[in-house]
Structure formats: C-alpha cells, structure tokens
Amino acid sequence: MTDQLKSHYEKPAEMYDGLRLHQNENTAGCSPRVLEALRGITRENMGFYPPYSAVTDAAARYFGVAADHVALVNGLDEGIMGACIAYLRPSAGSGVVPEAVVPEPAFEIFRFDTAVAGGRLVQVMPRPDFTFALDEVLAAITAATRIVFVTNPNNPTGVSAPLDAIRTLARRIPKEAIVFVDEAYAEFAGRSFIPELPAFPNVVVGRTFSKAFGLAAIRIGAVIGAPDTIDPIRFAIPVYSVNIAAVVALQAALEDTEYLAAYLRQVKESKALVYAACDRLEVKYWPSDANFVLIRVGSRVADVVEFAKSRGIFLRNRSSEPGCEGCLRFAAGVVEHTRRGLAVLEEALCAER
Ligand SMILES: Cc1ncc(COP(=O)(O)O)c(C=O)c1O
Fold first, then answer.
1. Is 154 in the pocket of ligand 1 (CB under 6 A)?
2. How many Å lie between the centroid of ligand 1 and the Cα of residue 281?
C-alpha cells in the first residue's frame, strides 16, 4: 500500500531560500491585520478548545450561504480527504468499490486520497487544449461512481470548466454520489458554483484561504453545500481540527477586503506580464483564470527548472502530469516577483537554445 500511495503523491521538497513560484502561493503573504490579530491571542485562548460559531458565520457571509452550509477545515486538503473518506470508503458486504472520477490533469491529492480511502480511481485523459472533457467524464460515470472531481479553475492548467458542465454532471451522477467542485482559485477567476448550490444539493464546493488570502501556513479552508451532503464530510474529520490561530487569522483576513482586492489586481497584472514574455519567447501557454500559468517549454523543461532554481527562483516541473509533457507552472503573484521570475525564465530559455 505504501508504494501505491507514494506513486500517487510526492510532497515537493522543502525550499524556502528563494522566490517560491512553485506551489501557487500568495507571494505577498497575508494581510498585516492577520498578524495583529494573532498577537492578540491570550494564554486562555490557547488553553481552551477553539470556538467556531463567529468565524463560521463570517465565512458563511463571505460565501453568501447559511452557516449550516459551511464546514471549516484544516486546509482544503483536509476537506478533500474528508470527502474521500465519507464517500469512497467501501462499505462491508456491499460488493461495490466506490469510484472517484478525476478529469486529468488534476490536483494530485485526489488520486492520493482516493487510494487512502480505498476507492477506485477512474482517470479521464485531457483534451489537447485542456477544455473540460464533459462527454468523456460523462462516459466514465458508472453505478459505482461516488465522487466526480472538478477543479475550477483547474490546477495545473488554469483553464475553467463551464458551470453548465457541472450542472450536467450533477444531474447525471448516481443518487449516492457528489460532484466535488474544488474552487481553490475561485477568487482569481471571479466565478463560483456556490450561488447554484440550492438547486444542486449533490454538489459540494471546496474553498481555501491559502491562495488569495495568503494563509497557506496556518491551514484553513471550507467545504460548502447542503447540510445533509456536507455532514458526512464533517463527521469524517477530527472535531477540533481547525486551531485557534486559524480561527483568529481567518476572521481578520475576511475583514480586510481591500487587501484581497489589491492582491487580485497584482495577480492580473502579473499574468499579463507572463503572457507577454511567453509570446516574446515563443513558448506556448494556456491563458489562466487562476494565479499561475502553465507554460510548455518543451523537452528542456527539467533543465530550465534546475537553472531557475540555481538562480533562486523555484518553478514546478509538471511534465509528468497527463497532457502536460514539457510544461512548467509559474505562479503569478506580486508584480515585482513576477518580473524577477520572468527574467530568470528568459535567461534559462535563451541559454537552452
Ligand atoms: C486545486 C487545489 N485544491 C486544494 C488545494 C489545497 O488547499 P489547502 O492549502 O487549503 O489545503 C490546492 C493547493 O495547492 C489546490 O491546488
């Protein structure tokens, strides 16, 4: 089992002594108001199990849903694991191995968590342009399907799926199944399936505060959906998995709407710079609705990533992902960081020619 799990996910090496453009993080970090709020944590706060109602209400307001439609989780990773345990664990004597349908290329954690839960992975291979392969995903659905994963916008491509594709999937899955819409990058896209949830109680939306809000280190995310659908996920994860620092940080972050808006503007400007550089360097890229860009540099990709690393710029080689041969992923954050990253990418590509 260990080898099987290892083949599904390998954690990126720990690299902090350079510019991190390889894990789609917020390169500016969190709002300064978060640090101020964290400094206000008292000894008593630390001694008690954390309170969740006020922060859940604040998150529910942010998402525009009722509080019982939100479960806060220790990073969206935990929400995905909870969904896999809740929906993909084989039940004794049923004779059914629950299936997870994963349109590729996808966030590797779906493969990993499916294996941990004991489910069967059904991969759907991508189209060359990475547009959402609705017909192929529909063809992969069987009576044993229990989760269909849709990442919107997708990681590592940055390409969005039409909301109508999600509606179609929700109408076509077995009654015991869910569509799990991973919206880790939704703030950058400015689009969400959340307003549609009342009409689709078999859809769960996953969100994170790691990316647009810059809270990756503190670990806070949410799953959103009809209470009957998200309760099994809630029950599959530890009751106090969100710690007091995450509670305090999230409340402060949600209040600083200006900080969020300013960061979204930086990302937009950064992506335009990345596209312009790719055009100049004559390398293919996919216009992205997220905070990163997938770039096809070709067979030299490993050398380009190594060269950039030697210059203190960390990029992610994605060439082993389905459909991503020769591709690297470049995070677009603070404009000045993007310029530094692009200068090194340009140097690497010119050196490789
Ligand atoms: C598609 C997707 N979902 C979920 C996550 C994990 O989010 P979190 O940091 O909240 O666990 C990531 C992080 O990179 C991601 O890319």
1. no
2. 30
For the record, the structure tokens of 320 come out as 């082993």
More confident call, 243 vs 8:
243
> What's the 331 CA to ligand 1 centre distance in angstroms?
14
Q: Cis ω on the peptide bond leading into residue 32 (within 30° of 0)?
A: no
Pairing of strands 292-296, 327-331: antiparallel
- Cα–Cα dist 270/291, whole Å: 9
> With bands split at pLDDT 50, 70 and 90, how would you rate the model's confidence at 353?
low
Supply the residue whose CA is at minimum distance from atom 15 of ligand 1: 184
Specify the pairing of strand 327-331 against strand 99-103: unpaired
Ligand 1 neighbourhood includes 151 CB (under 6 angstroms): yes
Report pLDDT for 338.
98
The verdict on the CB of residue 155 being under 6 Å from ligand 1 is yes
113 pLDDT exceeds 80? Answer: yes
Q: Which atom of ligand 1 is nearest to the CA of 73?
A: 10
Which among 113, 208, 209, 213 is the best mutation to test ligand 1's pocket, defined by most ligand atoms within 8 Å of the CB? 208
**C-alpha angle 163-85-145 in degrees, rounded to nearest 5:** 50
Identify the band that residue 10 occupies on the pLDDT scale cut at 50, 70 and 90.
confident
Q: How far is CA 125 from the centre of its chain?
A: 19
Q: Tell me the average pLDDT across 199-222.
A: 98
**Helices and strands (H and E) in the chain: how many:** 14, 13
The verdict on the CB of residue 317 being under 6 Å from ligand 1 is no
Please, are residues 203 and 166 in contact by the beta-carbon 8 Å criterion? yes
Rounded to the nearest 5°, which phi and psi values hold at 327? -105, 145
User: 């620092």: which residue's tokens?
Assistant: 245
